[in-house]
From TrEMBL:
It comes from hydrothermal vent metagenome. Pfam families: TPR_1. InterPro entries: TPR-like_helical_dom_sf, TPR_rpt. This is Uncharacterized protein.
Amino acid sequence: EAANSTERCALLLRAVKGCERVLGAAFFEKNTGRFWLIRETRTFMEALTNLASTYAHLNDFDNAIACYERAILLNPADNQFNRYPLSNCYIQNKQLDKARQLATQFHHDRGAFFLFDQALIAFIELGDHKDSKTLKKIALTHNKFVPKLLSGKIKMPKRMPERLSSGDKDEAVLYAAQNTELWRSISGSIVWLMKK
């Protein structure tokens, strides 16, 4: 599997470089900040985020972070929702301040991804402290399904949902699909999350 991911990484890197050549440096300079709104950029943006995802799969978080950060710089509205895997990569890479700054940057986003990530960061830094408990309570009030999916008490569906609503089971499924490995890597975090 690693060999396939490494090959995929090389192909995606070539795709990104090829798109950069076709679009040209002047195009990037002129359109940074509104990339996703321009149809010609979609292939580049998708290649860049797929490259980031592949780097993350290979545990190359520095390169994954660089790609996700670039995607958000080019498209600050973040129509592709790169902020969620970027937050995951920051936490995996022990860049907790950057994960907090990202949540602040997207303060309008009050969904499960940032709420549970912020609770996890507090647990990593403070353990079972009143401040981490407060963030946990906020996250759980928003979406009660996340802990059950992270712990395996509810099985993940075979197919990922295509749509979600804030606070619903589909949102929890998408969060767990991206973050279960992260939570399981932090000793005691899932037990803490499930504790009343």
